[in-house]
Amino acid sequence: METSQELTHARGLPYDVFAKVCPSRGTLEHVTGRWGGLTLCALREGSLRFNALRRRVDGVSEKMLSQTLHALERDGLVHREAQPTNPPRVDYELTPLGHEVAERLMSLVHLVEGRMDEVLAARERYDAARGAR
């Protein structure tokens, strides 16, 4: 049986998300975490200011959105544009890489949304079998 590292090298990739020290693991966390994924998908709709983005990503706190945007900007997925106005105006938009990632995430979002009836039925069966509610 091949190791993860052997499979990665066989595919010609220099990074292996399954390796503990691989930097791709952190980026994957930023992209697939609840707030990161929702933020990327919201920005797919176009450039947004912080408060508009916070309203779009319902439930995210100001602190979490700020941390999420910093991580996504550092990873090169989001561009932050600060306008020298009073009060300052800051807009966020996806980079080309961010657009590519968001498109793939949206495919997953559409799949999950489209299959929620099956998910909810499975949850009901699971809960009924275990006597939980």
Number of strands: 3
Count of spatially separate domains: 1
Could you say which structural class the secondary elements and strand pairing correspond to?
Answer: mainly alpha
Principal-axis shape equals globular
Summed up, the helix count is 7
Distance between the termini: 42 Å
**What's the CATH class label?**
Mainly Alpha
Rg over C-alpha atoms, rounded to the nearest angstrom? 19 Å
**Strand percent estimate:** 5-15%
Q: Main sheet, how many strands, which sense, barrel?
A: 3 strands, antiparallel
Numbering strands along the chain, what is their spatial order in the largest sheet?
1-3-2
SSE pattern, N- to C-terminal: HHHEHHEEHH
CATH architecture: Orthogonal Bundle
* Average pLDDT for all residues: 91
Oligomer: single chain
CATH level-4 homologous superfamily: Winged helix-like DNA-binding domain superfamily/Winged helix DNA-binding domain
CATH topology: Arc Repressor Mutant, subunit A
Tell me roughly what share of residues is in helical segments: 55-70%
What would you say this structure looks like, in words?
This protein has one domain (23-130): Winged helix-like DNA-binding domain superfamily/Winged helix DNA-binding domain (Arc Repressor Mutant, subunit A, Orthogonal Bundle), CATH 1.10.10. It is built from seven helices and three strands. It is 61% helix and 11% strand. It is globular and about 60 Å long. It has 133 residues and is mainly alpha-helical. The chain has helices at 4-10, 23-32, 34-43, 50-56, 62-74, 96-114, 116-130; strands at 48-49, 78-83, 89-94. The N and C termini lie far apart (42 Å). InterPro entries: HTH_HxlR (IPR002577), WH-like_DNA-bd_sf (IPR036388), WH_DNA-bd_sf (IPR036390). It comes from Streptomyces spinosisporus.
